[in-house]
Model the fold of this input.
Amino acid sequence: MATVNPHKFTGVYTSIDGEYSSLSTKSLVPGTSVYGEKLVKVGQDEYRIWSPRRSKLAAAIRKGLTEMPIQPGSKVLYLGAASGTTVSHCSDIVGQNGVIYAVEFAPRSARDLVQLAAARTNIIPIIEDARHPTRYAPLVSGTIEVIYQDVAQPNQAGILIENLKTFCSFGAWGMLAIKARSIDSTTSLNEVYNKEISELANRGLEIVENIDLEPLEKDHRFIVCRVTEDMT
Done:
């Protein structure tokens, strides 16, 4: 019989089935599998297994993430939402008192995202390009506490910075999955990472964590940063 224990991050759980331990979140919509993930019933609650090979945030947690800004009640802007795999787990975490503005540009992924949001009232899908935050700023209400970014673009640090400037204030968090080979396919990985991280630091962001996601994700670093200075 599976057992579920709270993880150190509120809203995240450790599910233990025999000798195998996996991450999970408590389902906001019981009885529904979003992307084929296993559902675990414990008492009256249902938990969704959260694979670190399907989600960079889960991979970062597995690799020792120490700061988890996405919490129950958080107001999150998610850039590069795709079909909503990780978005759905973030939806579980923030709960009914939180909200996720999920930005996706690719039409096919956006259709899946809209369908996901139809069953989860705390997800607001935005079909737009994350490079142009002023286009969707009217759709975002109030100040965002956390921006999570997972986009396959060359200027990944720049995209995060522009969105932080548009939606956030002092103390806000940024979470960035750097896809090195989407930035430069010839330069060494460390050079690519260092360039992006330096750009963040030079624009007033404190780099809180820098996690190599290997072997769970190839050629990826996960960065957690915070607005501590004026970003103008």
